[in-house]
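agent: user wants the full assembly modeled, not chains individually. Plan: 1) parse entity lines 2) check alphabet per entity 3) run joint structure prediction 4) return tokens. Steps 1-2 passed, two entities, 563 residues total. Proceeding.
--- entities ---
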Amino acid sequence: MNRATFVFAGLLVLALPLSLLMGRVWVDPETTPNAMLILIELRLPRAVLAIIVGAGLGGAGAAMQGYLRNPLADPGLFGIAPMAALGAVASLWFGYATSAYLLPLFALAGGAAGMALLALIAGRSGGIALFTLAGLMIASLAGALTALAITLAPNAFAMSEIVLWLNGALTDRSWGDVTLAAPLVAMGLVLLGFAARSLDALTLGDMAARSMGLRSDMLLWLLVGGVGLCVGASVAVAGIIGFVGLIVPHLVRPLTDRLPSSLILPSALAGALLVLVADCVVRILPMVTELRLGIALSLIGAPFFLWLLLKMRRGLV
Amino acid sequence: MTLTVENLSLTRGKAGVLHGVSAALQPGQITAICGPNGAGKSSLLLALAGLIAPDGGTVTLDGTALAEIHPQLRAQRIGYLPQDGEVAWDLSVRNLVALGRLPHRDDGKAQIAGALEATHMTALQDRPVSTLSGGERARALLARVFAGDPEWVLADEPLAALDFYHQLEVLSSLRAAAQLGRGVVLVLHDLALAMNHADRVLVLDQGRLNADGAPEQALSIGNIMQVWGVSARWLGEPGARALVTG
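--- prediction returned ---
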């Protein structure tokens, strides 16, 4: 437990109750009609889901940066998120999404297919470069198929559904989504926790890490499993929410001793906080239709990324 | 406590890297592996560290094949320092050195303090690695290996890119380790450093063991001519030799 863990856990405890009161309607538990119903059935599951999704993306991002020894790595690099998205898009395309559970299940199946494909292509040799390239290829393939699905959408309604869903949101989510995502993300984070010390060893490069007893193949599977569960479950319930896995480890790293193992838990907490706060912001922005969470985070994330690149160019990171 | 290679062969792609190399390395000594570029020095060191599996022959530690020793136990007994000196994150020196305890899965406070002491890094232990000079960084990386308290210290070009003073400083840390009974194996490019500081020199030439013995014999001018194709001669006294061409 380091300082960053306490800071973000504390902030999260403060932010959660506040987020419940915030929204298009500010809830005053004493005067608002049906206050408890709004809080428990609408706002609380949404807030809890924001925490789960953010924790999964933040933790997975920290682990990926540790694994690839690169501060620009993102959990999307394995191609699991685009595959999960493709799964969800398929369910919308075929019109199965009318049943509440089918879309997330399709997304999970897509994510699992992405993991399997990754294992098939790069699993045995397990080199980091091959793995990353395989991930990128899977991501572009999934992206192309998603674009194809949009252009060939059976009707305008399905097309707009797909586009909307791809932008990521936590609108109108229920406890059902929470019960689906929570155990998967928790399992994913536990797997990443097991990988943590191996990621520390990788700080000194592949050979040095192996000389310290690292089992590269085991680490790879822990990572694919952990990142796959976190990201796959997040996409299944919230759509594509970018940049959290990239930004959060950066913000957290200076508050820690910079070892990958010290970064995973606080990044999960900070990711939870970021998504929770961002979701509150999109709720209260005075817009006709609610700004999609995925778009909002990309609007914050892309300039941040550029700033980061400029800083790296000056050798400050 | 001997680290032995027997009839070791390695292939990468179609080309053979090592052919039938045999040597029994002794603890308490500094053994230098010398040879021209591409002679297979780094590959031999990796095989000795158990990090690449031989295509033929065996590498054994006290009679047990390295491949049969659990990676974690092997890591506790054999420390390996790669040449690239990569440190991906800007850790403090102390945290960097503490990584050396990973094979033991403990805090190892005493060993870390000892390793910092042995490499004269105690005063710098709170500094971020990015602020170190090249010499300090090389010492910090060596301290990481020492912190694991291994029986064998295997280092690939630990003196490259260091100035003369820092070369001697790192060498004195390695000598102290050998005097404590550790086996020290170094890949060295600088033949004068091997001549003056190693107890034993293995000369590799195109993947074959060309010479194995005391530095004076293994690095004789005849051998240097034969392996490196350079006409050279040694000047100075034993222990303070300099190599000049012509």
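agent: reporting back. The domain at 3-313 of chain A is CATH 1.10.3470.10 (ABC transporter involved in vitamin B12 uptake, BtuC). Chain A is about 75% helix and 0% strand.
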